[in-house]
Amino acid sequence: MRNISLLIVAGFLVTMTAAAQTSKAKVDPQGHEWWQHAVFYELYPRSFADSNGDGIGDLNGIASKIPYLKDLGVDAIWIAPCFPSPQVDFGYDVSDYENIDPMYGTLDDFDKLQKTANDSSIKIILDFVVNHTSDKHKWFTDSASSKDSKYRDWYIWRDGKGANQPPNNWLSTFGHSAWKFDPKTNQWYYHYFYTEQPDLNWRNPAVKDAMFDVTRWWYKRGVAGFRLDAVDTLYEDPNLTDNPVQPGKNKYGDPNMEPVNNNKFPEVHTTLQELRKVADDYNAVLIGETWTKNIDELKQYYGGGQRELQMPMDFMFTKVNPLSASEFRRQVAAVDKAGGWPVFVISNHDIVRAASRWGDGKHNAQINKMMAAFYLTLRGTPIMYYGEELGMENHDPTRVEDVKDPIGVTGWPQEKGRDGERTPMQWNGEKNAGFTTGNSPWLPVTPAYKTQNVESESKDPDSVLSFYKQVLALRHKNEQLLEGSYVSITDDPNVIAYLRPYQDQAVLVVLNMSASQLKIKLDLAKQGFGAEAKTLVTSMKKVPAQASASEMTLEPYGAYIGELTKVVK
Ligand code: NOJ
Ligand code: CA
Predict the structure, then answer these.
(1) CA–CA separation, 374 and 377 (whole Å)
(2) Whose CA is closest to 419, among 433, 409, 432?
(3) How confident is residue 8, by pLDDT bands cut at 50, 70 and 90?
């Protein structure tokens, strides 16, 4: 009997240890969780890979490219919204949160994609559009049907100030009034984005419950987390105070205005903290689309001591134009000390591609490699954007009649819309870059696809793609890059140089952010390291396997990554 109880106790202990190990397996010796070491990759489902020839990418297309993503060094894919949607905002107008749009496939296809990805240790992150639904969502159609609808208060309905006068002066960020009059009930509804994207009323607890349940539904299906869309605008002033008007007009011809009364309300943080509680039950990660103006705003999204977003995106890098070593250095130092885990982004589906933003037309490949060497070796998690690894450039429409993104029509020609950064992924040099077997991709491929494509660049050891692969491979296996701190070691206005020290070694990263060849002196002894570096990855032609790191010659936009060893005293 005693032996049996001992066996039971021993069995219990084994189970406990296994459970502890499983949860421990989620963190490394430094206490990092999986997402802190992961490389995230955003893909725009319409544009990644089309499996059925209709010119629009789909889930089976994504599944067929999992081996490519694995080989590239991706650990998690964030799929921009693939839920049922009228596609006014190409999926950011969701009409059903718990299904897949038929143009992308079925729930069964989603499960298969997730299995294929997970079999290659790639996690799936979905895009959760929290601020608004489509006007075709059943919650909204019911809400609009009558003032007595059970869903009326799920959205923001108000009386106008008078005939044809909206409740206040707030503008939609996509142009013109943020209010739309609905004659059926004689009231106006609020939409921060397109008129077809009515804002949810997050002050209504029923909305919160329903939306939190959506996340549970997907967690139970196996998703590893969400990228949260447009969180800055979840709440607005219930008194509808007008926004202060400034001189001049915006690109849509509306008066300039500071959106202080419908943006970044403190309640956003309380709600995100509640959403995090739900995420924690499933060990999920929350990434925020957080357009913070400065580091203090970014800090708030980490929760200031409360558990809020693990990964608020820092977009400040994308605003540095032209390239400026001093400005990047200032930003990295600030985010490194912000109290959360840094998240770096250089491109996405709403902003001009990095290659077009920073390219000078002469050194584009070098600049793309240099920026990759930069943001993929910092202490923090990078979120790549599909095609960035090829040096893909924007391909903007030249005629308004070709524009697909509605803001490009409203704002033409000042605002050409976001089609340019959403063109099809370039898989090979064949027709339509191998994106579709059909004749008409939903957007034209960039003219550069003949040389900038996965097939050609994979064969060229000097391509941007090959460089990304080298840096990503290093990032996954190098302990200093995984665990090391960040120490800037120069104030040179043209050069970024830093160490990622851990234990008795450091990775040294040196980047020339100028179009001239430069000589740089680095005092490594001060940090306790020897001056001899073992070259790990470089974009420069004339670099020996062992380089002198105390004095380096840097080619224009050259990038150097090497290994230093501590001097034993
Ligand atoms: C941010 C998304 O990234 C963008 O594409 C979309 O238009 C707006 N949010 C509205 O959902
Ligand atoms: Ca398709």
Answers:
(1) 6
(2) 409
(3) very low
* Spacing, Cα 104 to ligand 2 middle (Å): 6
**Rounded to the nearest whole angstrom, what is the distance from the C-alpha of residue 434 to the centroid of ligand 2?**
13
Task: Judge contact between 341 and 36, C-beta under 8 A.
Answer: yes
Nearest CA to ligand 1 atom 11: 92
Q: Quickly list DSSP for 322-380.
A: S--HHHHHHHHHHHHTSSS--EEES--TTS--HHHHH--SSSHHHHHHHHHHHHTTSSS
Query: Which residue do the tokens 């009997």 mark?
Result: 1
Mean pLDDT lowest for which of 17-26, 34-43, 509-518? 17-26
- Number of H helices and number of E strands within the chain? 17, 21
CA 200 to the chain's CA centroid: 23
Q: Is 128 left (phi over 0), alpha (psi -120 to 50) or beta?
A: beta
Q: In terms of residues, how long is the chain?
A: 569
Element (DSSP H or E) covering residue 435: none
End-to-end CA separation in angstroms for the chain:
62
User: What's 566's DSSP letter?
Assistant: B
Nearest to 377, CA basis, from 544, 536, 542, 555? 536
pLDDT tens per residue, range 89-102:
999 999 999 999 99
Each residue of 491-539: pLDDT tens digit? 999 999 999 999 999 999 999 999 999 999 999 999 999 999 999 999 9
Task: Show the DSSP H helices in 185-294 as ranges.
Answer: 205-221, 267-281
455-503 pLDDT per residue, tens: 999 999 999 999 999 999 999 999 999 999 999 999 999 999 999 999 9
Q: What is the mean pLDDT of residues 310-315?
A: 94
List residues with catalytic annotation.
229, 289
4, pLDDT greater than 70: no
Mutate to test the pocket of ligand 1, among 43, 193, 352 (most ligand atoms within 8 A of CB): 193
pLDDT given for residue 26 in this prediction: 63
* pLDDT tens-digit readout, 141-166: 999 999 999 999 999 999 999 999 99
Best mutation site among 78, 79, 92 for ligand 1 pocket (most ligand atoms within 8 Å of CB): 92
Q: In the numeric block, which tokens belong to residue 400?
A: 């308004």
AA identity, residue 125: I
Distance, CA of 538 to CA of 2 (rounded, Å): 65
Do 406 and 500 form a contact (C-beta atoms < 8 A)? no
Give the pLDDT score at 24.
Answer: 37
Compute the C-alpha angle 536/542/543, nearest 5°: 30
d(CA 362, CA 463): 15
Q: Which ligand is nearest to the CA of 134?
A: 1
Of the bound ligands, which one is closest to the alpha carbon of residue 60?
2
Report the candidate in 523, 521, 531, 522 with the shortest Cα–Cα distance to residue 567.
531
**Type of residue at 6:** L
Q: Is the pLDDT of residue 16 over 90?
A: no
Q: Which atom of ligand 1 is nearest to the CA of 174?
A: 7
162-180 confidence digits (pLDDT tens): 999 999 999 999 999 999 9
